[in-house]
What we know:
disordered N terminus; alpha+beta; elongated
Amino acid sequence: MARTALISLALLGTSGCGEKAPSDAEAIAAVEAAQDGKPPVKPLQPQPILYPDITQNKLHGTGCAFVADGGGLGAVLLAQDKRGIIKLDGHVEVLAPDAGSHKMPKGSWSRYTGKERALTLTAIGPITPAGGADQFKGKLIITDAFERPVFEATGDVQCKAI
């Protein structure tokens, strides 16, 4: 019913302008495009995952910690074998590993997904062993539910027991 009303309005709105009225298919396509609109991109600013977050949420394990360049010493991503962890607005968010993605050091994965977002961690430098840990320069991209980037940073990655 609402669709019919919108199509009728679209036809009426253009019929008096001296322009050719859109076909039914064009009017339907315009209405569907308006209904499929995406919300604006909301940039994210992940917060450091601190030791109280790790103990309180039982996040201990082996994996990789990503620290963004210029972001201080706190990791904004913990990439483990069974979960990826970020912290937004004071809340820890757990994402599931994408088992079809690239395997990273210490059992971590290159991609993790959740209901509202996904993230990808890639090595942009050589992975070097350092005293029981692996280290590399990495890039983190977090995307929204529409696969649009909402956070992107390069930084240092250290993989070991957390």
